[in-house]
Specification:
Elements lengths: L5 E5 L3 H11 L7 E5 L2 H10 L4 E4 L8 H11 L4 E6 L4 H9 L4 E4 L4 H20 L10 H10 L4 E7 L2 E8 L2 E7 L2 E2 H10 L4 E5 L13 H14 L29 E8 L7 E3 L4 H21 L8 E4 L3 E8 L2 E8 L4 H16 L1
Length: 356
């Protein structure tokens, strides 16, 4: 059995030390969470036992988070570090990243914010487990871009692909510019995502950088994925989601688009194989999708408006869309951060791929 990761949570507020361990315990990696209410106590605990991640507050009496970080970077260079704070000042963020911080996280105040926070911590713990050089993280490039945006970071990602080098600039979680050999702006961003391999590192922000990209990061990823599809590429998938157990998945899944969290297609014949991706329990979701579409079809006939052949819904966690395709019922779930227009555009692309 793999060893559980250990998180040291440092904060001077008692309610944080009581609430956040319960939140962190929900993570898929099931980390062991220890707490400290002062920098001196945290450093003593780091001396006495190994930890995977230090998650510390910035504004604390006697020894603030930056002082703790300076000592940790010198004495425990392999320890992953993240700052959890209510301070949004860009100078503090820049100083922390310049000192080698892995993530600068703002304390979440909403349900989606808490989910984004937990996703970021789990991603960092995954990097701890895989090891490697600090700063040369082993997540996919799309994952890192999404994480920088979700964390509302201001930073620069430098990407190298052989002799080629490129950069993507972030400001408060938004992509403001990109540069690749002989390209700039959105064209450069699309070129960067087409690279299949390479290395990257996260650099401090450049506040003076002028904005040249104005779309949301979701629309940028969707646009880049469309360009790659048209060119026959496959490099801009979301990565990290695998087919559900026991599912038969198409060789090139039409559900592999940024923002899609799961997808499946089921035939009218309940004995037919289920084509699924990213689904924990394909048979249960397949039965729900089949029954939902049938209920809406019956409702349409009852209202004398003809059969309803397209269903769109929205839940706490997902946008969900269902549509018939020949003998199949196609169902896709999208991240709640996507707008309705982005959901519809992506579903249209999924169905187009399905028809082809």
């Amino acid at each position: 059995m793999a060893e559980r990761p250990k998180i040291l949570l440092l904060d001077d507020e008692q309610n944080v030390l009581e609430i956040y361990p319960e939140l962190l315990a929900r993570l898929p990696s099931k980390p062991e969470v220890r707490t400290a209410d002062s920098g001196a106590r945290a450093l003593a605990m780091l001396e006495s036992e190994p930890f995977s991640l230090l998650l510390c507050d910035l504004n604390m009496p006697h020894m603030d988070g930056l002082q703790v970080l300076a000592i940790v970077r010198r004495k425990f260079p392999q320890l992953r570090t993240a700052m959890l704070t209510a301070i949004t000042d860009e100078q503090f963020r820049a100083r922390a990243y310049g000192m080698g911080l892995d993530l600068y996280l703002e304390k979440p105040t909403t349900g989606p914010g808490i989910k984004s926070f937990l996703d970021c911590v789990e991603s960092l713990l995954d990097q701890c487990a895989k090891g490697g050089f600090r700063g040369m993280q082993s997540k996919g490039l799309v994952d890192i871009i999404q994480m920088e945006c979700l964390c509302r970071s201001s930073s620069v990602i430098k990407i190298s692909n052989g002799a080629q080098e490129a950069r993507v600039w972030f400001q408060d979680g938004e992509i403001i510019d990109a540069a690749a050999p002989d390209l700039a702006g959105e064209a450069a961003f699309q070129r960067i995502l087409a690279w299949k391999t390479g290395n990257f590192e996260i650099l401090p922000p450049e506040p003076a950088r002028k904005r040249a990209i104005f779309g949301s990061y979701e629309s940028l990823l969707l646009g880049a994925a469309q360009v790659l599809d048209e060119a026959g590429g496959t490099g801009a998938g979301t990565g990290g989601n695998e087919p559900g157990a026991g599912a038969a998945t198409p060789a090139k899944s039409p559900f592999r688009h940024p923002g899609v969290e799961f997808g499946l297609a089921v035939g009218k014949d309940r004995k037919a194989p289920i084509k699924a991706w990213g689904v924990e329990d394909p048979p249960v979701l397949a039965e729900w999708a089949r029954a939902t579409l049938e209920r809406f079809r019956a409702l349409g006939e009852e209202l004398h408006v003809g059969p309803i052949t397209h269903v769109q819904g929205c839940g706490l966690r997902h946008h969900i869309m269902i549509s018939p395709r020949g003998e199949d019922t196609v169902c896709a779930g999208f991240r709640s951060t996507l707008s309705a227009d982005q959901v519809r555009a992506t579903m249209t692309r999924i169905l187009t791929q399905w028809d082809s």
